[in-house]
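Give me the 3D structure for ATP-binding cassette, subfamily A (ABC1), member 3.
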Amino acid sequence: MDPGARRQTWDILQKFKEGRTLILSTHFMDEADLLGDRIAIMAEGVVKCCGTSYFLKKTYGAGYHLIMVKDKTCQTSKVTELVKSHVATAALESEISAELSYLLPFDESDNFEKLLLEIETKSSDLGIDSFGTTATTMEEVFLKVGEPDNVEEESETVVQGISNPNYAENHHDKKPLLNGHSNGKIANGYGTLSNGVALNETAGGNFIAFNKNIKKNTGKDLILQQFYGMFMKKVIHTLRNQLVTGVQLIVPVIFTIMALSIELTIPKQTDEPPLTLNLQPFGNGLTEMYTTGKTPSNLTLGVASRYEYTLANRNDIPLRVTTAPFDIAVVNQSKAIGIATFNKRYIIGLEMGQGMKDNESVTEIISYFNGQPFHSPAISLAYTMNAILKHATQDNILSITTINFPLPQSLSENTRGLFFSTLGTGFVVAFCVIFGMAFLIASFALFLIKERATGAKHLQRVSGVGTGAFWFSNFLWDMINYLIPVLLIIVVFAAFNTDAFVEDHRLGILFGLFLLFGWGSLPFVYIIQFVFKTPPAGLVAVSMLNILSGLATLMAVFVLKIPDLGTEDVATALDWVFSVIFPTYCMGSGIMNVYTNYGYAEGCKATGYPEICLIDNTSPCCSGCTDTCFKFQDNYLAWEFPGSGKYFCFMAIQGALFFIVLFLFETGVLQKQCASLSDKTSNVGQYSGLEEAEAEVGGIAEDDDVRAERDRINTTEIRSLVASDSIVIKNLKKKYDSFLAVDEICVSVAKQECFGLLGQNGAGKTSTFKMLTGDVIPTSGNAWMNGHDIQHEMKTVHKQLGYCPQFDALIDQMTGKEILVMFARLRGVCESQIKSIVDDLIDIMMLRQYADRQCGTYSGGNKRKLSTAVALIGDPQFIFLDEPTTGMDPGARRQLWNVLSQVRASGRTLVLTSHSMEECDALCTKMVIMVNGRFVCCGSSQHLKSRFGQGYTLICNMGTSENGTQDSSIPLTQFLCDKFPSTQVFDAHQGYCHFQITDKNLSLGLLFGAMEKAKKQFNVEDYHIHQATLEQVFLAFTRNQVSPKEEEKHGICKQMCCCFLCCS
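Predicted structure for ATP-binding cassette, subfamily A (ABC1), member 3 (1064 residues):
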């Protein structure tokens, strides 16, 4: 959370905690200080101390910190002499840039009035612009408790704070609460830290040993080292991402097996076999209806007997009709059992009876058949004739067998059948193979999308890796990874031993198709993945795109090639279009053509080709054919159909073209063109600069310091500015459609300075960082780092830039040590030095026990440590840190502050954003507060507090009277209100009083003097006076922040056809 949101949360907790028990765990000590009535500090499973905030500060606090902002005429020795003349035990804590910090013990507070009044009087002579004080913070208490020698001392008072603030003085229990833990530490390394606000820049010089005497590779050696680093990154990720790797191996092979299995089971083009005309195809248990007529004769009875005998032998159920006319009986039976059942069981029937012919009585025999089954008329007639034969011969053994021998197909019919079966089978094989390869190729987008979405790719680019090294290392490993399933697919083809793909070195042709498909499709995936923000969405979308570009296009051309449709010309035109654009179509067509060419060639050989062409040149296999022709090529790599040479050529060209487009994008050419187009269409009539001195930001007039900085930068030659300042930002602007994220900011950062960029979420900090690190292109303006501008020399800037992004840009599958080794290689550190440098950084960042664990398992704090280590490795000249200590505990945070302070003292320039105002207070020598894309104030921490702070915070603890009761705070409150009318009571309970004195013109010396008198007069046990904090200044400005709507930020991405080029 930013400070504003955090403060709102605190207000909510304060409002609703009455009548409830609130248990809070936090890494923000000011949060514990404000919300906690009692505070316990734990480490290694034990409570190290517990009490009220006031009690803990009194027990472990070192005193007041007197901080002064000096001008160029200030002499530190004279200031120190003055301070010690009043407070003999005072000590100079630090001298950083334009700030001096002294430690004043609590027990000499009665001397503070004279000291502060004299400083106020002589500030001009001493060269002091402003000064202020702050008492011990809870963070200092946390660090102090971590020192190894405190446990025995603290054990007497560790559980104080329940109710009596004087417990530490009156209680004499010597039994250690933490018996057995007397040497405990909060964490390894904390005991060596400075416990004041000022940081240790000199002690422990080994903190920056990792940046001493570094030898770096250049030129060809650097490129090869970066290539190796990027290649090993891909190898490690693939080997540890076993699920994706397994899918890459299995899915294409499964679909290939499916394709070849289908090819084996599809029936080949042959003549129909002979068919015996009987009821056998319909199974047993049929019912055959028959009748002998109203007046049966010996003939009809005899035929009926033989008919029934023949059918009973096959377990059928002959049904004799004796009542209604036979045809009526059949209709009634179909109605009774249902037409569907009737059609399955009633295939044939027989009717016999007496009739008249030429005035003579004759016997009539009629064979009935069901019109639904095939061949039923002939079958019915065959059974009738067999019954008559058996009756006439009185021999049941004799029978007539009727067999239908279909005529051989004509050449035209055979050709047409072979044409469609060959094309269809080839299409099915290509269809299945494409389906499997679509998922294989799409899987290579997963890591790229995640790497880009998490910022890992940008961090690698900032660390110096070139476009060539990054993408060619990706392509080399992806190609190796791709060829493994391809080789398995070739093995499957060989195992099935399908003639169309195995004979005459056609396996080599298949391997060539797969190889060139990888060459053409991988850079296509590299380009298209920029559109997607999440890996799952990218995987699905790229898979579907591959399927549509391969299967849908292949199916369209396949259908249009059907001769009866008369659309062969359209199919040919589409074939050319799809071949130029889609690698998946080329591979599918190539596989289909290999099978088709073989099928046509074999079909022609079976018809007597080429001899038949001498007799009939219009035969399907001959050159004179005009309808349903078999065109085949002796050379399978021929350009003309059904050769595959065209597709080989197009895939080779596609790979080269896609790589060219990729490099144009990655080198910024396309983005700059799109950004230029966007500016031309959106800048007409727009606000184009700062309106002189009265420009306002969200209702806040531009501060004099900000205006002075802008005027100095705009009126001074850049050559002079870059000679004196390490970083110069001039009128830098970033606009997303109608939303102005950064509005022509101007500032410079001197060498060996830590510059703080503060602001709420949405103020423009991240956009500023993105422009300075090359992640997005500025709409206008420029910035220079060591004389190199970000518009034209970003590669040179990257070589000098270390970057810790806001969100951890780490690769989860790599260990912390592997991450640091990779970035050391990207920075060009010689291989012989990498191990020692990485080990030093791991120890300094207190990551030793986690170094060999995959960083995806790290806690948030440890990820920030690792990200900061990445920014520091390789001794960069500039170090950009975006909220580097988020999630760290106070000890780890202070350790990192000490490291960063020493790095700055070694001559490096730091740029920092943070939501911890204490962090900015401790590290930044110069800072700005950003609101709505503009700077609203500029200066050192003490300068901002002195100029914009709202008075002082006073915390008092009342003493106890002789009878043991606690004195009332009411007289003290009345005294302060009379003395200082702006006094406000913030909190008061159980002898604890918290006052806000909002008069910022009040003399700090007079306030200390008044409190020394009140201490004796009202039995005040102790008191602490704080100047207005940096957070209060921050909140006063940022309440004017306007939260932009998300659609306003990204509207341009929705409107521009090249959105992913400009905004990804």
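The chain has five domains: 33-207, 275-404, 411-666, 703-800+877-897+912-948+1030-1064, 950-1027. Let me know if you want a second pass.
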